[in-house]
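Database export, one record per block. Field names are fixed; values are copied verbatim from the stored entry.
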Amino acid sequence: MNKTEGYWNVEPEIKRLSFPKRGKFQVDLKDGRSIVMPVSAFPSLKRVPVSERPKWYLMGGGVTWDSCPEVIHIEQILGNYHSYAHEAVLTEGQTPRN
């Protein structure tokens, strides 16, 4: 496996957040990746008024808004990488998925 390709050991950091079309939001990372997701996957974001959504700010590795009681963290955006990693690190007693 060539660990010089891809994003091995890259700490994802949010650079920008946008709403490219109705019902979607896009997170651009400092490393050049962009992720587009449905707003419906984040109920706390759905409650943020559309007029306020462009007024996001960074907080503790995630994003939030003045009217939002939650912080949407980068892990929520990228998902649990251990669940879909090509070569998951196994702890004692675990077996690889087949």
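Remark 1: Residues 84-88 have pLDDT under 50 and may be disordered.
Remark 2: Helices lie at 43-46, 74-78, 81-84.
End of record.
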